[in-house]
Amino acid sequence: MREVAVLGVGMTKFGELWDRSFREIGIEAGLQALVDAKLSSADLGALYLGNMASGSLIDQEHIAPLILDYAGLGSRHLPGVRVEAGGASGALAFHQGYQAVASGLVDFVAVGGAEKLTDVPDVTGNQITSAAADHEWEVVFGATLPALWALIAQRHMHQYGTTREQLARVPVQAHAMGSKNPNAHYRNRITLDQVLAAGPVAEPLGVFDCAPLSDGAAAVVLGPLEVARKYTDRPVRVAACQVACDTMAVQHRKDVTVLDSTVVAARRAFEQARRAPRDIDVAEIHDAYSISALVSLEDLGFSEKGHGGPDFAAGRFAPDGELPVNMSGGLKAQGRPFGAVGVAQIVEIVRQLRGESNERQVKDAHRGLAQDVGGTGATSVVTILEEAS
Amino acid sequence: MSIARFWRETPRRYNLGGSRCTTCGTVYFPPRLVCPTCTHHRQSIGKMVPFQLSGDGEVFSFTIVHDPAEGFEMQVPYVVALVRTVEGPILTGQVVDIGPEEARIGLKVRATFRKLREEGKAGVIHYGYKFAPVDELPERPPAGRLAEAPAETARGEDRAPA
Amino acid sequence: MEAGIVSYGAYVPRYRITPAEIGRVWGSDGESMGQGLNVERKSVPAPDEDTITISTEALRMALVRGAIDPQQIGAVYVGSESHPYAVKPTATVVAQAVGATPNLTAADFEFACKAGTAAIQTCLGLVGAGMVRYGVAIGTDTSQGAPSDALEYSASAGGAAFVIGRDHVIARVERTLSYTTDTPDFWRREGQRYPSHSGRFTGEPAYFRHETECARRIMEASGTEPKDYAHVVFHQPNGKFPQRVGKQLGFSDAQMRYGLVTPYIGNTYSAAALLGLANVLDHAGPGERVLVVGYGSGAGSDAFDLTTTDELARFDRSFGRPVQYHLDHGTELSYAVYAKFRGKIQMGGS
Questions:
Q1: What order of strands is seen across the sheet that includes strand A46-50?
Q2: pLDDT in the model for residue B151
Q3: Structure pTM?
Q4: Which of the four pLDDT bands, split at 50, 70 and 90, describes residue B144?
Q5: Are residues A276 and A164 in the same domain?
Q6: With an 8 Å Cβ cutoff, is A145 touching chain B?
Q7: A353-372 pLDDT, tens per residue?
Q8: Which end of chain B has fewer CB atoms within 10 angstroms, the N or the C?
């Protein structure tokens, strides 16, 4: 298997992009990545496009050829593949692109992630995205995505003594970072009191414990590490990329406070990279809900099980902590365009490793991790990136 | 939701019909064709048999939903729980007939039959299980006559051929 | 008659509203209205309840209490004037939900407030003829009065299920008798949301004549007098009418004590007399004679002359809530929430 490098990255602003269409944002992110990689579109061998629900959201399926066509590549007849894994669609697309290059079958691939969530009313957007959970045995009974994560939160609080205040620290940090990210959906800082006083969504989770529905797209270009320096001065090596699945419904988990898919994907990824959690300098994790951030930190091995809350509150994952997490602002503040999220996490880590993150730059970031979760944890993708020596 | 998609699940949604693996004995809801517990999945193929849940259980976790799923707007705020049944499987379901402030982990509940959603004013109505708290048994009627009656608790057995 | 009641179950939704609260909204003295009707509170179904869910709860309770195999049920009849569907039976959903399908007959009955007692008579016929082992008769309603109409102060929700069979009968049916005429006292036309009524005409020529005539005729046929009965149950559109009928016929308050439930839960229409009977059976001992006289507008009365048996002493009443629980408990609603629950608020959107 050959080594794979990220050669270029790009992303649109995330947020309510009223005047921009799905195809426009998809192409913008892709072209940015190609330009960043100093790669001609003629060099591309395939497109992998992560997207969760274009058919329900914009009445458009079959979107990989659509994006290729409007990117001006229609006459080149590239293979275009749409990849879907709920909120982990983008990360899974990255995984597919990574495998294609690593296998030697394709040299250069574009990996995109795009979602247009504001073309439907919020209520509809919530209903459509809840399909990432088990519709027949969870959603039908009145459980929304935040409700299902709230069930995990309530149990986590019961078993480990995690507190409402500890949960509330997550969005406070996210917004602080979002304020420094020009691409972020939310650029306002919020206080702990604001989080605690905000209206409830699914108790114990309130409005600020839940990431927004955003529009946005992100893209990366992958190629063989051995030729990477032809296309970029700062190639980033994909040290590991692993996917793991778990039961579809929360009710069937061995322990509802544990994302086994994350535990296993992380274990495989650390094995593949021959690294350990302590070797990671910067991470982007699934903070779609404040509780999902805490359990992710635990299940990735950055906190002991049950210690996510106190560790986060103690500042271990702050910009100046031992492992800065979600310097992009995360899903909470940078935004949550479902299918684009996993690719945007890669974009953030690559920029951190290249030292391009300006105000948000983590010092001495040589190795980063991205974790993307679909639904309530039925799919997790864990990727480890390193500066190429 | 398509009518057929809901209709074919009525044995589960109305009556809590699950399945049990005859190899390892684990009970599942909803029913499964293959046992996830058996180390070698092939062992369980063809050996999963129907198993009826009683509907009794207790709240394992819960949330009070304020931002409702479509069709639940009239019930806000409502309680959704993970209910651990006495037979083992955990089910996701609404807990009705309690104020949200009464919800707690460990609350004893029993399955009840309610409307789950309606396909608009003119469409079909979907029914299924929710859960309601089981109260402490109310005081028996004071009439002493009942106490004098012979205690034949197994009375029903001869009348309920399986 | 060999056939009789072998089990029963009752269900009343959790929510309540008082006449005073209803009157507060419409600018009338609801409290004195309630006193006039002898209705303290009425039950209100939750937004996810209807006569199908109420019937299912009542019948499930009956089947557990009687330890009855649902597959032995040969008929399910649900009497109501508030079936959720105009076309598509309530009874099929109920039968499926209790596991009685597919080897049975099922149908919905409608005869204003006496559809449930008519269903009992039908089951007595089927069981008596040996056509089915168990027949199920349910009386249930979630009826509504038009906003501010006098009916709004009493129209409530509930249901009772009776399993009719021949083995282990807890209440023998000595006789049943009906009295039926064409009397337009109360009706609801196809497509109309709320029923209409003919005001004071609903009293003397309708309710009172049918109740008293039917009661006299069944006692005459059975050779009984009021004093022979330990309990009497009348249809109870409010708490006052049945008391007056009882007095006219010569029954005492003590005889009516358990059979009168409307003052505490309101008028449950098709379930009214049957919840009264369920409450009597909750309290009765063996060998007690019970007279039940239901009434349905349009109009007719069905009377039942019952005697509880020794089986009643062995009957396990511990599963589920007794009727008394529903009379004593409940969560009171404001009119605003009541209006929301009952779909009286016009919502936006499609």
A1: A80-83, A46-50, A109-115, A216-224, A4-11, A236-245, A379-387, A367-374, A282-284
A2: 34
A3: 0.94
A4: very low
A5: yes
A6: no
A7: 999 999 999 999 999 999 99
A8: C
- pLDDT value for B1: 62
B157/C144: higher pLDDT = C144
Q: What is the pLDDT of residues B30-50, one digit of tens each?
A: 999 999 988 777 778 889 999
**CATH number of residue C295's parent domain:** 3.40.47.10
| C340 to B74: CB separation less than 8 angstroms, yes or no | yes
Dihedral sign for Cα B98, B102, B106, B107, please.
negative
- Chain B residues touching residue A203 (CB < 8 angstroms): 63-66, 100
Quote the CA–CA distance of B126 and B3 in Å, as a whole number: 9
Q: Say yes or no: C80 and C201 in one domain.
A: no
Q: Domain check: are C129 and C73 in the same one?
A: yes
Which pair of tokens denotes residue A254? 């061995």
Q: Is residue C347 part of a domain?
A: no
Q: Which chains have 3 or more CB–CB distances shorter than 8 Å to chain A?
A: B
Backbone angles phi, psi at A365, to 5 degrees: -90, 105
Domain shared by A227 and A283, yes or no: no
- C340 burial level (CB within 10 Å; 0-12, 13-18, 19+): middle
How many domains does chain A contain in total?
2
Q: What is the ipTM of this complex?
A: 0.96
Considering only the C-alpha atoms of chain A, give the largest distance between any 2 of them, rounded to a whole number of Å: 59
Is the pLDDT at B136 greater than 90? The verdict is no
Q: In chain C, where does DSSP find H-type helix?
A: 19-26, 30-37, 51-65, 90-97, 115-128, 209-222, 240-249, 253-256, 262-265, 272-283, 311-314, 323-328, 335-341
Residue A296 at interface with chain B, using a CB cutoff of 8 Å: no
Task: Give Cβ neighbours of residue C276 (< 8 Å, ≥ 6 apart).
Answer: C233, C234, C236, C258, C259, C260, C261, C262, C292
To the nearest whole angstrom, how far is the Cα of A205 from the nearest Cα of chain B?
9
Q: How far is B6 from chain C (nearest CA, A)?
A: 13
| Catalytic positions of C | 81, 113, 235
Q: How far is B79 from chain C (nearest CA, A)?
A: 13
C348 found inside a domain: no
Instruction: With beta carbons less than 8 A apart as the criterion, state whether B82 and A251 touch.
Output: yes
Contact C97 B160 (CB under 8 A): no
pLDDT exceeds 50 at position B140: no
pLDDT, one tens digit per residue, over A259-268 is 999 999 999 9
Does residue C252 share a domain with residue C140? no
Specify whether A278 is located in the same domain as A310.
yes
In a domain, C346, yes or no: no
Residue C198: exposure state from Cβ atoms within 10 A (0-12, 13-18, ≥19): middle
C-contacting chains (≥3 CB pairs under 8 Å): B
Pair A88, A141 in one domain: no
Nearest CA in chain C to B156: C67
Residues C175 and C161 in one domain: no
B contact test, residue of A124, A127, A135, A151 with most B CBs within 10 A: A151
Say whether residue A150 is in contact with chain B using an 8 A CB cutoff.
Answer: yes
Which of A 242-261 lie inside 8 A of B, CB atoms? 247, 249-252, 256
Pick the closest to residue C91 from C64, C133, C122, C68 (CA basis).
C122
B61 and B92 in contact (C-beta within 8 Å)? no
| Residue-wise pLDDT tens digits, A133-161 | 999 999 999 999 999 999 999 999 999 99
> From 2.10.109, 2.40.50, 2.40.420, 1.10.10, which CATH number describes the B54-132 domain?
2.40.50
Give the confidence band of C72 by pLDDT, cuts at 50, 70, 90. very high
Q: Which residue range is the domain that position C246 belongs to?
A: 171-312
Average pLDDT over chain C, rounded to an integer:
96
